[in-house]
Amino acid sequence: MSGRVLGIGPTDRTSEERTPRTPLIPVPAGAAASFVPWLEQVPGLRAGENDLTRVAPGRPQAEGTVIEVKGHVFDGFGRPLPGALLEIWNANAHGRYTHRDDQTDYAIDPHFRGHGRTLTDAAGRYLFRTILPGHYIARPDIGRWRPRHIHISVRGGAARLITQMYFEDDPHNDRDPMRILMGDAFARQIAVERGTDADGVRRLGFDIVVAGAAALLFE
Questions:
Q1: Which of 115, 135, 151, 203 is catalytic?
Q2: pTM for the whole structure
Q3: From the candidates 96, 146, 148, 155, which is the catalytic residue?
Q4: 106 counts as catalytic
Q5: Which entry of 94, 96, 126, 136 is annotated as an active-site residue?
Q6: Catalytic site residue 94?
Q7: Which of 3, 115, 133, 218 is 20 to 30 A from 51, alpha carbon to alpha carbon?
Q8: pLDDT in tens, 171-196
Q9: What local confidence, expressed as pLDDT, does residue 1 receive?
């Protein structure tokens, strides 16, 4: 039995480096359990770390549309995973990240945290508040923009899995190399719209499946 070999993403300069050129070696069944996210010790989380809309509780709110993302983390058998450490990061409303490697000319929002953490509860549930990320141009030479997306890391004692959440009907989805590689599986990467509250907060649902036929695509 051999693993999959992914295709090369169109117009993506990094896909050659990220894509296996030979079949992957399957993980033996006895060792697969070690790849299910789990934690021996609870990390020291600070209050409000799951709220990216403010750099600290009580501080001014960042620019842009506030979104709330919540869902469950499941294993390949549909069982919830409690105590999994989730981390997210995304661009601000102008399309700029808070990390030092983003040297673009997009505006910096001093009130936007840019990254956050939380733990799933006993039922495998999580919740984040952040700002609807802006678009940014990934390939100026061909005019290709990245669609709105949020990076999500699921971390346990034996593995770290990273995926991306997309937004329905984004005008740049269809040209995104990752979306093209995913094919029909891209539908699992799209957040479910759950309406907008009277206070303007946009509610989204996004379940994370780490293994099995319904698993998300992880980097």
A1: 151
A2: 0.85
A3: 146
A4: no
A5: 136
A6: no
A7: 218
A8: 999 999 889 888 899 999 999 999 99
A9: 39
Q: What is the pLDDT of residue 78?
A: 93
What tokens were used for 191? 């957040």
Catalytic-residue membership of 97? yes
Q: Is 126 a catalytic residue?
A: no
* Catalytic residue (one of 72, 129, 148, 149): 149
**Is 151 among the catalytic positions?**
yes
Residue 42, pLDDT score = 62
Q: Which residue has the tokens 């010790």?
A: 41
The predicted-structure confidence for 108-129, as pLDDT tens digits, reads as follows 999 999 999 999 999 999 999 9
Q: Which residues pair with 154 in a beta bridge?
A: 86, 161
User: Hey, how many other C-beta atoms are within 10 angstroms of the C-beta on 15?
Assistant: 16
